[in-house]
Amino acid sequence: MRILVVCGAGASSTFVAQRVRAAAEHQGLSYTAFAGTASSLATDIDAADVILVGPHLSHALARIEADAARRGTAVVLLPSDIFTDREGTRTLALVQEALASRFDHLARQEQD
Q1: Where exactly are the transmembrane stretches of this chain (predicted)?
Q2: 49 DSSP 8-state letter
Q3: Rounded CA gap, 28 and 84, in Å?
Q4: Ranges of each domain in the chain
Q5: Greater confidence, 107 or 41?
Q6: What are the two backbone dihedrals, phi and then psi, of residue 31, each rounded to the nearest 5 degrees?
């Protein structure tokens, strides 16, 4: 599972990526997480299964979701207090919820 964390300049996304990667490792999950910026998203999106969007990029969420939908990539807008998640466990839970929703959606599409 590849998680892209996107923020404006890449600094805060680096911290979130490190924390969620550590939380996944602690739970025995083979997830990778990497940081990106709003300007690198067009390139980075193809390498991601889940995109975590920094709260300060909420204005770009619709565009990111549209780009991600064409690729089957899940998108999560991170809450404004996500940077207090020092262990990364809350962020990891958001990733897992997004993946569960994505798989449920795909399963419903196959049934129709």
Answers
A1: none
A2: S
A3: 23
A4: 2-111
A5: 41
A6: -100, 145
Helix then strand count (H, E) for the chain reads 4, 4
Neighbours of 30 (CB within 10 A): 7
Task: Quick: pLDDT tens for 49-100.
Answer: 999 999 999 999 999 999 999 988 999 999 999 989 999 999 999 999 998 8
Q: What token pair was written down for 72?
A: 């089957």
What 3-state DSSP class applies to 76? strand
- Which numeric CATH code is attached to 2-111? 3.40.50.2300
Beta strand segments in the chain, E? 2-7, 32-37, 50-53, 74-77
Residue that is written with structure tokens 């809350």 in the block: 90
- Give the closest residue to 83 by CA, choosing from 28, 7, 3: 7
Q: What is the pLDDT of residues 14-54, one digit of tens each?
A: 999 999 999 999 999 999 999 999 889 989 999 999 999 99
Q: pLDDT class for 10, splitting at 50, 70, 90?
A: low
